[in-house]
Amino acid sequence: MNLKDLCYFYDLSNLQSFTDVARKHEVSQPSISYAIKRLEKEFHCQLIMHDPSHRTFKLTPQGDILLRHIKKVLPELQGAKKEILRSISSYDTIGFPPIIIDYLIRKEPAFIENVSALRNIHPIQEGSIELLDLLSRGDLDASFIGSLEPILDKRFSVRNLMTSDLYYILPSGHPLADKETIAFSDVMNEDFIILDEHFVHLKAFQHLNDQHHHAATPFFQTDDVNLLKQLLRKKVGISLLSEIAITKEDKDLIAIPMVKNERLTLYVSLITLKENNLHPKVLNFLKELFS
Questions:
Q1: Considering the entire predicted model, what is its pTM?
Q2: Are 146 and 271 in contact (CB under 8 A)?
Q3: How far apart are CA 95 and CA 147, in angstroms?
Q4: How does 155-194 read in b/e, with b if 16+ C-beta sit within 10 Å?
Q5: 236: which DSSP letter?
Q6: Backbone torsion region of residue 150, taken as left when φ is above 0, otherwise alpha when ψ lies between -120 and 50, otherwise beta
Q7: Each residue's pLDDT expressed in tens, for the chain with a length of 291 residues
């Protein structure tokens, strides 16, 4: 039985369109039709109520039975395939959010001292939201993740590394730059430059905005921290960043804490798949960080 045929059948049950399934998998529409025919031959029954035009779609009772079992089996088979491929790979795929990797290089001597371990690492640099999704799908072996609360998930082994408060970041000379703390109500009419939906910073902004009836609107979103800072230096707006994102080179930017009852914290964790065995050099490299 072909694993791709099961994938096509599963997607067909969700999308209910031969054309859409073919487009998703970048194959021809007849390829999907032949896959269904192979499955029907395998199970000696009709699985789909056939319509020559493919304009209507309905599973037969036997198709419903197959779908119910595919939902249980397919994730395991796909997970097994990914795990086996990882086990014979010469490197581990590790996720590094830009802010966290920058912090590690600046602050953690173990990162540079054990740089030889990087030969066994295939790095993926994305925001924490994107990396957590990749990890959930089994496309990463491990990842550093920033989150607004501790991650509790039975699929993962989670090592909490550190916490970092979130600050309002203002350009020098801003009227609020002398304040000791800032409430969201003080800045909700400002032009916010925010890291985009792949980062937890947008979630933090949305959380604060929810408490004020969505009075604020992001002026500009980006996935580039350096671009964000450059815009702040041009006095284009203000931002929201974790403390670890601020470097010695950012002396012209002012970081001001949130008021106590609105304070948000970034949790930095190292997350690995429970069933995954990392290469010894990579495992040692990760253990020495924050030790």
A1: 0.69
A2: no
A3: 14
A4: ebebbebeebebbbbbbeebeeeebeebbbeebbebbbbb
A5: S
A6: beta
A7: 778 888 889 999 988 888 888 898 888 888 888 889 889 999 999 998 866 565 667 899 999 999 999 888 887 776 776 666 666 566 688 899 999 989 988 887 777 777 667 678 888 899 999 999 888 887 888 899 999 999 988 888 898 889 999 999 999 999 999 999 999 999 999 999 999 998 999 999 999 999 888 888 899 999 999 999 999 999 999 999 999 999 988 989 999 999 999 999 999 999 987 766 777 778 877 777 766
Helix (H, G, I), strand (E, B) or coil at 86: helix
Scan for tokens 């001597």, then name that residue.
109
Say how many C-beta atoms besides its own lie within 10 A of residue 119's C-beta: 11
